Structures are given as structure tokens and as C-alpha cells.
Amino acid sequence: MSHQPNEEQESTFLWTPLVIPLGAIVLHFQGWSQFLASVSKMLQQSSLEEFSSALSFWFLGALSHPLMEAAFDISELLHASPGPRVLGLVPWSFLLGALVVGIALVQSDKLRTVVGSTCVAWVLAYMGAGLDGTTTGDYNIQLDDSYQGRVVQGCPSPELVQALRTSQQFDYQKYQGRWYWHKVHDWTQFHQMYDTTLDIQLTTDDTTSMVTGYINTLTIKGPSPENSPLAWDKSPLLQGVRYSWKGEIDTTSDNKNGVSQESGFGVTFPNYIIDVDKDYQELVQFQCIEVGGVRLYEGIDFMSRSPTMTDAQLDKMHQRARSIDPYGASPDQMQRIPQLQQQQQAEVDNAWQDLWKWLQVDRYLDQSL
User: Fold this and answer.
1) Same structural domain for residues 305 and 161?
2) pLDDT score, position 276
3) What pLDDT does residue 191 have?
4) Which residues are listed as membrane-spanning (predicted)?
5) Exposed site from 15, 136, 145, 170, fewest CB < 10 Å?
6) β-pairing verdict for 366-367 and 241-249
7) Contacts 24+ apart (CB under 8 A), 148-153
8) What is the C-alpha to C-alpha distance for residues 228 and 192, in angstroms, rounded to an integer?
């Protein structure tokens, strides 16, 4: 009988792996319930292949945010730790702390359970905030999200987008080259990115030499010096991660309407040029993915040929793009991307960068075509 309290405590503790994550879901219950309802609608109104590809795309982007943020925070903690560094890389104090934590986790089943459950709960709470729409600037992962209290369902029709555009004629020859991202509404990109560029290379038909499409190559660096002042110059992403996807232009039209079909990451989606100035120095483009009548993703890019833009210039871009505010173009729904090329040293030289070069990390981070 003397062992009964301990047995009851053990029985109660067995629920810990469920209770802690469940609490995170309850905290954002409305967001999660709306998400499940939208997923059910997608499943009913789309093919299994389309549904699985779309959901894989969503989960990849939704999960990468909290995992990247955790990695950046741990990196900042590592480089803030005091004391001499082993091989110029890791402080002894950080190694000692990691060793103590590791031993404690190995020796205690309960501690492993609590820590594991807490980590899962943190990810669920992070995603729940995005599903609630409370992190609209860089992580609004709501499906069919709302604008000014009204749910905006699905993507706009091509005819409606045509009416929303300020630029009805578009020259793809002037589209190619390098663009600098200054503001985006895109939850697939992590919060601490900076110096983001988009390089566009036109593709042509071998026989007719007609422009038939283009290749996008996006370069992202992170974490930014503003958010991670101690870790940014030790990051493997200092030289940028690059990946590409393709765009196809409708060759049956005159190719001047600024509408193309892009494909990558397991999904296909339209890209609309909403606004471009006459000199092709500033541009607003909009992408939208709808599956089974549910809007899964919307992307909006404010781009310029110049790495610098003033707040006044960006305000004018917001005015020209206000027709797509319900889809994420309003100032509170977009993330400002620092362009710091002018402020950084030409070459960063430290033990961490030497390690990444020795490991040839840049080869794995360059997924461009």
C-alpha cells in the first residue's frame, strides 16, 4: 500500500507527453479548428495527388519557420557564451552547459519527456499563432485568411486580377536581371533573412527564339546582423542559400499581360505583375495557390533594381498595390527585408567560415539551376 501514491504519480505523469502539447493547441484552438476544417474541404474538393502535394508544401514552409528561429536563437546563445573557445569555434562554457544538460537528459526519463513535450508544444504554439493570424508580418499561415475582419476565400480569378493591376502591358525582356527584395508577404521565407535578391533569366524556344519562360533564382542570407548581432557572421548562410524555380509564359498570347505560370516545390501557381514603373526599376508581383477552393498560399513581392529604398518610396508602392491589400499587401501584413550590402565588410574571415568552406557547405546550399 505504501507504493500506491508513487504509482498514481507515475500514472499521472504518463499523460505529460499529451497534456503539454494539447495545452498549446487549446491556446490557439480557433486557428487550429479553422485549419482542420479547411483541410477537410481541400481533401473533399481536390484529387489526392493535388491535396498531398499542397499539404506537403504547406507543412514544409510552416515548420521551417519555428525550426529556423530556434536554430538562430541557439546560435546567438552559443556565441554569447563567455570563456575561451575550442579551436576558435565553441566556448568552453557552452560545451560544459551542453554536457550537463545532455547527462541530465540521459539519466532522467521524466526530464526527457518534459523537455520533448515542451519542444513539441512550443512548435505547435508558434504555428498556432500563425494560424490565428496574430503574426501577420512574416508568418500568417492561415488558410483563407481574413482581412479587416472579413474572411477572403480562395484566390482571385485571373479576370479579377487583371482589373486589380495598374500595369496592363509588360515587357519580359525588361523583367530579366537582378531584383532586390525590399518587402514581402511570404510565410515560406524565414523572419531573419536579409540581402535577398531575385535573379531572372529568360528561356527561349530553340527553333523560333521566342521567349517561352524564365528561371527564378532566389538568394537569401540569414540571420541578419540586426536580429543576431553575435551570430550573423558565423552563419553557414552568410554567403547565401540559392534555389531556383521555373516560370512559363503563354506563347499563344502576345506575352504582354504580365501573367505566367510558375512551378516548383511540388506545386504550380500563377504569377501576376501587379505594378511596374515605366523604367522597370520598381515592381510588385503577386502569386496565389488555391486547392479545393481554399487559398493555401499568397506571395507578394515589392522589388527594386536598387539595393536601397526609402520608406517614402515603399509607401508609394503600397499605394499602387492597395488593390491586393485583402491578400496581404497592406503595410502591417508585409515584412521589411534589410539590404545591408553597403554596410558589410567585403570579406568576413573567422573560424566558423573556414569550417563551412572546409565542409563545402556552399555546394549543398546552392540549389540553383
Assistant:
1) yes
2) 93
3) 85
4) 12-31, 86-106
5) 15
6) parallel
7) 148/326, 150/326, 152/295, 152/326, 152/327, 153/293, 153/294, 153/295
8) 8
Residue 157's pLDDT is 85
Q: What pLDDT is attached to residue 30?
A: 93
CB 248 within 8 A of CB 271: no
What per-residue confidence (pLDDT) applies to 149? 78
Q: Tell me, what CATH number does 341's domain have?
A: 2.40.128.20
Q: How far apart are the first and last CA of the chain?
A: 70
Residue with cell 476544417: 37
- Three-state SS at 305: coil
Cβ proximity of 329 and 185 under 8 Å: yes
What is the distance between the alpha carbons of residues 276 and 282, in angstroms, rounded to a whole number?
Answer: 6
**8 Å CB contact between 224 and 131:** no
Residues 203 and 88 in one domain: no
DSSP 159-206: HHHHHH-S-----GGGT-EEEEEEEEE-TTS-TT-EEEEEEEEEEE-T
- pLDDT value, residue 102: 97
**Amino acid letter, residue 263:** S
In sign, the C-alpha dihedral spanning 308, 311, 313, 315 is positive
The parts of the chain modelled with pLDDT lower than 50 are 1-2
> Do 258 and 279 reside in the same domain of the chain?
yes
- pLDDT recorded at residue 207: 83
Cβ 184 vs Cβ 334: under 8 Å: yes
**What pTM, to 2 d.p., does this model score?**
0.90
Q: How far apart are CA 314 and CA 324, in angstroms?
A: 15
pLDDT at 136: 67
Q: What range defines the domain where residue 218 resides?
A: 147-367
